Amino acid sequence: MNHTLLSLVATLGLCAALAAPAAAQDHSSHAGHGATPAAAGQDTVLTAGEITRVDTRGGKLTIRHEDIRNLDMPAMTMVFALKNPGAAADFKAGDKVLFHAEDDGGTLSITHINKAAHP
């Protein structure tokens, strides 16, 4: 091999050797790393509340709730529509719940709700 080709091969080998540890530290392809909460499936911020009224016909729940962090809303009592209106029949006044609400074009709706575990 001539001297130029040998130098080129040595340089390429050195570059590859130096790049390997950096590639081993690159976690950007892992799920959730550097991703938005929605992309990582972490957008479901749950809020604690207590149901004060159930409207099974309208598919709505009135809930006295804590701060809703994902909506930047203070604690209060308000009416929420359910994305699945039939789920209203699964609840009664007094039920403690954990729920996720979203602002869908100015309408607040519950996309996820579960009865809270009793201590």
UniProtKB/TrEMBL annotation:
<dbReference type="InterPro" id="IPR042230">
    <property type="entry name" value="CusF_sf"/>
</dbReference>
<protein>
    <submittedName>
        <fullName>Copper-binding protein</fullName>
    </submittedName>
</protein>
<dbReference type="InterPro" id="IPR021647">
    <property type="entry name" value="CusF_Ec"/>
</dbReference>
<dbReference type="Pfam" id="PF11604">
    <property type="entry name" value="CusF_Ec"/>
</dbReference>
<feature type="signal peptide">
    <location>
        <begin position="1"/>
        <end position="24"/>
    </location>
</feature>
<keyword id="KW-0732">Signal</keyword>
